[in-house]
Write a structure and sequence with these properties.
By secondary structure, the chain is of the alpha+beta class. Helix content is about 35%, strand content about 25%. A five-stranded antiparallel sheet has the order 5-6-4-9-10, covered by helices on one side. A five-stranded mixed beta barrel has the order 11-12-13-15-14. The two termini are about 40 Å apart.
Amino acid sequence: MNAIPENQMHLDELPLVQICNYLQALGATRIGNYLNKASVWQFHGKELLVPCARSFADYTDRIFEVVEAISRYENATLAQACSNIINSGYDIIRIRNISPESKDGTLPFEESVSFISESKNALLAAACSASTQKISYKGQKPHNAEKFMRTVRFGQTERGSFTLQILVPIQRPLLDRGFLVELPDENYERKVVPTLEAGLMAINDAAQAASLDSSIGHFEDKVANGVTTNLCNALVSMYESLESTEIEFTFSFSLNRPKTLPQSKVGVSRDYIPVIKEAVQVLLSKEPPENAECMVRGPVIKLRSENSEFGGEVTIRDIMSPKLRPIRLSLDKKDYHEAIKAHDTNKFIEAEGVLAVRQGKAPALEKISKFTVFNPADDAVD
């Protein structure tokens, strides 16, 4: 067997699950087990062994054989094959800045910091839209959007008019007797990148239509497609920070998804930036005052109901205000029972609505548009 090149990626860094998933995606068939120590795969006329544990003495040799077979099939180097296996567990967003400044694959330092920051804001806007579908997100963002952003990875930059690479991990869903098990968090994480893709396409369509008839309605009609003032602002700032001639987004989707999604490319032309920028100003001017709606978050400290079958009132300690304060929420039957569970299990409530302040009483959140329960322990940093 060939010696493993020293300058190639360490093979023991490759996730075993991703190796098997990648083999399957390339048409390999699992045909059995070898002494309960390895899975046996038929891969385009070649039999391969994938060890079940890294502790086996010949682990690296067996993995090398697998990676070498994949590299031959893909006509790629070993390093490229390793990279493809690892990246197959991610949705990948490549953001290419095309400008005179980036012809040699570099950018001015100060401006590149802004470009990267606005790339993050674009993905965060999609994460917010995938959560609640609003036209604007001011101040604090939804908890699941914040939690999602903490999972995102920044990949190695690629040459080609300077290209950022953003990696979004996607968990492979479990099956129960052959049927897909949809967990809420997994379903949400799989929505975010397609929401960004759809939002960019919708902004293009809205800007093109608005440039012909000057109607702001084209943007308002695309909220369900992921259009937000936050995403529009991020695009405008990305262009203005580097005077780009074009910004191009390429989307590649993880093999861990239950259904394969095709790679796509969305280019946002500089010609539409003035229209998008003006649309943001008009949309924000139509928004109600910022203090008319707010988000509260915290533990349940009081429960009160004459008959829980008809709902009840809960009080939470709002941790999002500068000073901890009690906030009252009147809830229907379903949400009230969720609040009881949150109280009993030390979970937090997050809610959006209109804050009403009346003399002699704790502030009350009314016209509640969003109510969720989450475990604050999930946010702990390892």
